[in-house]
Design a protein that fits this description.
By secondary structure, this protein is of the alpha+beta class. Helix content is 31%, strand content 27%. The chain is built from 7 helices and 10 strands. 20% of the residues are buried.
Length: 249
Amino acid sequence: MTLHRSWLPADAVARGLRDLPLRAAVRGWSAKWFAHGAADVAGDRVEIALRDLDAGAAWTIEGDMVLSAGEGAPSAVAALMYGTPPDPNALTPADRAALEGAADACLADLRKRLSRELGLDRPWRSGTGDPVPHAWWKFRVAAGGATLLRIAVSEALAVRHVRAGLPPADPRPAPRRIAAALDPQPISVSARVGAARLTTGELAALGIGDLLVLDRALGDPASIAVDHRPKPLHCTIDQQDERLRLVVI
């Protein structure tokens, strides 16, 4: 039933549902239409399946929201609009049609306000819509302690609301080129002046003052090694003050 919770923080869905601007839409709606009293979003949100909504009229924005009105909701809305419940025995067919038309206009305005507050740009359609694989959460719209309507909100809508409220990502500098990134890396550079091959016995017999003849002539360039690994670079070796220096050639 739930698609989003596996990757969201534990309280993200609850926070998204709590922060949905349903209350602002409902309060503004009732302040405009009701003669006395005000409607509000009441009670705790409850996770449901869409089939659990009250029987009666319903309107939906597919996959996001359902507004459900029970059997007696239009009459209750009309009573709040005119300040007193109409006497059903005194109503003519024209009276009933007028009340139903006023209630329809009132509920249409609520749907418009819900769309505006939640940033929904798709149209409302009659019915609860096709089942979708999301969790749904039901809220009560109440006035004077009595439930007028129910609003079902999909978890997908709550998740989008959470995302919309996140701060923009911090801008990060573009990755540097590999060569630039390696510039500060320290290395050792050495020169191979030559080598001599000895037997183990000859090595053991070496003493102070003995001479080793290397395989490089005196004027030949020396090979350069980086971190003790030979590279295709060469240099000459000369003296600067009391120290040797390598001159790359």
